[in-house]
Amino acid sequence: MTAPVLSVRGLSVRFLMPSGRRIAAVTDAHFDVAAGECLALVGESGCGKSVLASALLGLLPANAQAAGGAYLGDVDLLAADERTLARTVRGRLIGLIPQSPAAHLTPVRTVRSQLEETVVALTGTRGRAAVRQAAEAAAERAAFPAGHLDHHPHELSGGLAQRAATALALIGNAPLLLADEPTTGLDRDLVHHTVDELRRQVDVGRRALLVITHDLAAAERIADRMAVMYAGRIVEISDATAFFGLPGPRHPYSRGLLGALPERDFIPIPGMPPELGDLPDGCAFAPRCERATPTCTTLPAAAAGLVCHHPHVTEDLRA
Amino acid sequence: MSRLPWGAMARLAGRRLLFAAPILLVVTFGVFAIAAASPFDPVKAYAGTAALGADAETLERLRDNLGVDQPFTSRWWHWLTSAVTGDFGQSSVLRQPVAEVIGERLVWSSLLCAVAFLVAVLTGTVLGVLAGRRPGSLLDRVVTSVAYSLEAAPVFWLALLAVWLFALQLGVLPAGGLTDTASEQVTFRQVASHIVLPAGVLAVSQLPWFTLYVRQGVSDALAEDPVRGARARGLSESTVLLGHALRSGLLPVLTLVGSRVPELITGALLVESVFSWPGIAAATVEAATAVDFPLLAALTTLATAAVLLGNLLADLLYGLFDPRVKFSDM
Amino acid sequence: MSRRSTRTVRVRISAALVAATVLAVLLVPPLVQLDQQAVDLSSKLLSPSWSHPFGTDDLGRDLFLRCVYGLRVSLLVGAAAALTATVIGTAIGAIAGALGGRADRALMRLVDTFSSVPHLLLGIFIVAMFRPGVWPVIVSVALTHWLSTARIVRAEVLSLRARPYIDAAISGGASRWRVAVRHLLPAVLPQAALAAVLMVPHAMWHESALSFLGLGLPTHLASLGNLIQGARGSLLAGQWWPTLFPGLFIIVPTLAIAGLAGAWRERINPRRRSELML
User: Which NCBIfam families match (chain A) (predicted)?
Assistant: First the structure.
């Protein structure tokens, strides 16, 4: 098996609030992403997915503490200082396609000028004509129409803004693409279009893709593997075909998530996710889980990409 | 940048001019109303001590000429109609047409204000960026404290201390005037050396505002999404700071820069007095002391017009630099 | 040091300075009689020393005492002007906010007009027209500084008008006048009071500028502005202290009042992130 591009081991992120409270946004994350593979990180809003992305890029706010390890090639992302992150990691090793792409662009500058600026910063291209050409080529790679290059971010539609963000992320030719909620606010066919474009980067470009999303339908379309996050913890990692087809997800929460989809049972999971500052000692999902028992007051050990005392295993189905 | 939207800009200028006309009317009316309500006697002001010895007929003729017996509204109208043709009357103290007095001095005042403004904007921006890039750092706290203290300091006091330090103690710069006392001509070198202190002091008095607003704009922008996006793309910190945070952070300053014109004029008034700079501000003080009404009325009108022009310029700049704003909305 | 503790320290220092100012201004004159006319030419223009911490002026008078007296005059005139400006501004702002419609627009146009004339210029004009003295100075300062109060009060009144209890009071039969006095006025008072306090430093500044130009208070009143003007002669001869200290006596109370009032303002008006108190 090929060596993974990204290797995350025991990554935890804690926020220290002014009141003294500690928010455990991410706890003990453990996963790999290989080249030419797409891993979808799914979970409800507020479960800590975007914080994980920020941690990988070193863009956490000042009151955050990250522990554990995240390795991209030889670089230890968590231990790297700001200089290394700015000069070797961001844009060059990890290409981020941020959530709300239009908001992540400077409103007073045109798309073209921001593309050209990134070209100059990340590649060796010099000279006005060459830079201009490179920027236009980058736009084309993400199917961003050349006619809109001289527009400003607020003039772009949701789909165009997404493509602009993708174009910017691809300039550095990074081995890992990190797409944070790439389908929010887009309508159905645009969603398909966008995820297909991203998938193309994986297949054709042989990149590793980590997609963070709460849209399971989109994940189904694009992912090779699924990682499910609940209350800051990755509770299940499975192969996508097994997850969406048979034998189906193993963790009760994942089952609940799929079951909540309109295309499936359309039954929501009862209850609410816990406050990240107030997590119970044992399994965080136990209060909402129909399979919970007193054992669940202790934290389950991680085994075969699963963190659960009472998973749905194939024996159950046969029985 | 794409072609300038001349049409929209011209329409905005036109709208502002339309708006400015009633303001100027009200201000000039107010000026005459205040004069009418005051113990000011135009005859005495014009004739000075000679009025004491003059006979009744001369005084009567003077009164007629000056239109003293007419209600102030008609005097105002008379003045207004002459003013639009460029005739602002005769200065009672300097015995010259007011327009001439202003014309002679406007150049020097404009030079002083322009230089000071430029220095204040540039220095303020640099200091604001340095302070704003790391809010709470030592540099930030020093810059902010100094800025607030300078804001509280009266500009004429700063001017006096500057004269003491640079002209008297160190002897490196002249203490006042436009040219050296002995020289006959006005040369570039002399003006250049004489403008350093007054423009410097005026700049220092305007500096804190720019510094504090740029600092606020930059530190706000650094905390927002566009900067996060720029950082995530792997741009260097200086590119992020100057190409993104500063670009966004300067916008609030641009909108408000027009509101600084009144302060600039106020500062110029005081600085020109201290340094005997031959500008209109110095003439204003003379006019006020001698109660030279025609000159005062003209100067007040001029100052108001300058303020309105400053506002217009600020709006034009803002419309040009912020692509989210349309001229038709302003 | 965390943000909150620096702010608390700043507020405490400001409060202490304001208290010191008030005490000095109230206590020193009765305790240490300074005869303004007393002239001791033998002690003329002594630089700062132990017996005269701020030195002496050109007529041998102790500069520290002169500054304290000057501060008293400047503060009194400044406070009177600020109060007058606040009354005018509150009245206009309240009327504009309460009446709304055409009256509001007209009054706001008036505000815009006044703000187009540079303060000092209008102030100079007013003082020039009337014989120089205390009242013209107060009026001149007041007439140029009522604008911000008017805007603040108007905004407050507009937001209050929208509240249901005002509507209820009016539809319950209370006359508009009664509503205005019993409900609007008390709510507006804190904002108006804050505006008045914040205006005192500006008023002091304005009066000093006028006095410095020779257009302000009569010289025998010896406000801080008068003192600086009077010190010009000695400055050119090299004596810096008669100029420096009166200026410091303007700056320090200004910063202290602004600091304290700023903290008060944050209490009653949590400000948006990008607003500055300038």
Answer: oligo_HPY
